[in-house]
Amino acid sequence: MNKLYIGNLGETVSPLDLESLFKESKIPFSGQFLVKTGYAFVDCPDENWAMKAIEALSGKVELHGKLIEVEHSVPKRQRSRKLQIRNIPPHLQWEVLDSLLAQYGTVENCEQVNTDTETAVVNVTYANKDQARHTEEIPLKILAHNNFVGRLIGKEGRNLKKIEQDTDTKITISPLQDLTLYNPERTITVKGSIETCAKAEEEIMKKIRESYENDIAAMNLQAHLIPGLNLNALGLFPPSSSGIPPPTVGVASAAAATSYPPFGQQPESETVHLFIPALAVGAIIGKQGQHIKQLSRFAGASIKIAPAEGPDAKLRMVIITGPPEAQFKAQGRIYGKLKEENFFGPKEEVKLEAHIKVPSYAAGRVIGKGGKTVNELQNLTSAEVVVPRDQTPDENDQVVVKITGHFYACQLAQRKIQEILAQVRRQQQQQKTAQSGQPQPRRK
Question: Residue 214 and residue 277: Cα distance in Å, rounded?
């Protein structure tokens, strides 16, 4: 296709003006320029020269004060239903392009025009002119797991605004109300031309991939350090069939080797007191208690909200009872809800405050000599671990250990403390066994 259409011409433009322009740009042409009111036609020696003329002149060169448009000419009967799309990024797959174009009608033909440039150029023919006209602005829809959307948006929407500005697109994200426990994905809708949508898609996926890799790194650390952790338990990521790979086999195997108790034994149930903003209680409970019931079934844990300590209480206690995996799932979903509903200020880091009750005789083991163990815990987990001094044990001879940190840090600290408590219980059991096996002293 070597015949060119030259548009947006002023009324005073002559064939001589166009000849001079092409000669100055060192673009050969054959025959004469056929000039009409506002547009003109000319032939190039071949298709490659026609492409170079389009790339060098269209939207870049002024003639009598107006930026000219240069594109392939098409037969008159097709002119209203055929269009050309340029500057398509090389990473955009044909399947994606086809699905975008098909949203506006029946595509009779879509062919790539040979070009030496890095970006692709395609000619598209629709069944009628109305369909072709509507492709000026098209929506691109991307499904993304909700765990990544917050970081895509950024603080006060800065990340999303930057992508919109850099790519000249309009981006919207489906509301949180559309989410359920079984459908954790949000729809990201990008509006613009095909070229700008493709640029925005590249930036969006780059940000989502970065968030995914950061989370995988954090979870792999958990797999090495937390016995009993099932990395897929929380449902943080879409299924592997969606194109995101599962954690590496080596890491999964390392976790599995220490994850589960011997056959026939159930993991011990634990009770954790989680403290959340009082304003968040309604969101956790849900309409007529539906959310907390769903959450309890999903996690396999008992979840109860304790009464407020007073009318002005800023925090409420959530009592979670269940084995380690259930704790991970329940606390993870509650943490996610706090992030989603913006119960923390824009500059505040979302943290969990968890309290674990431990036997008073084991508190010293958590603290360690001179505070060594608790300091090591804080360095290892990045969570704040505090055993308040001068606590009075409760009726069960237990004291409270307070843990504060982001989700993974809080989970890691809980698991390490539970390990210490399990060691104390094993040692006590060994002592009892040893004592019961000793012969009783004889009476004289």
Answer: 27
Sign of the four-CA dihedral 318, 322, 327, 329: negative
CA distances to 375, 378, 382 from 369, rounded to whole Å, are 10, 15, 20
Contact 141, 171 (CB under 8 A): no
Residue pair 155/346 in contact (Cβ under 8 Å)? The answer is yes
- How far, in Å, CA of 35 to CA of 13, rounded? 8
Q: Please report the pLDDT score of residue 440 as a whole number.
A: 53
Reading phi first (left if > 0) and then psi (alpha if -120 to 50, else beta), residue 341 is in alpha
Residue 218 in tokens: 């954090």
pLDDT at 304: 95
Opening angle at CA 65, ends 61 and 68, nearest 5: 40
- The residue to which tokens 């208690």 are assigned: 289
C-beta of residue 85 within 8 angstroms of C-beta of residue 24: no
Closest of 253, 234, 12, 1 to residue 109, by C-alpha: 1
Cα 259 to Cα 415: distance, rounded to the nearest angstrom: 12
- Asked if residues 135 and 103 have their Cβ atoms less than 8 Å apart, the reply is no
For position 65, what pLDDT does the model report? 85
**Which range, of 84-88, 203-207, 292-296, 354-358, averages the lowest pLDDT?**
84-88
pLDDT band at 438 (very low <50, low <70, confident <90, very high): low
Give the pLDDT of residue 158: 86
Spatial separation of the C-alpha atoms in residues 249 and 246, rounded to whole Å: 8
Nearest-5° Cα angle at 278, 277 to 283: 85
Confidence of residue 285 (pLDDT cuts 50, 70, 90): very high
Q: Which of 191, 182, 323, 161 is nearest to 239 (CA)?
A: 182
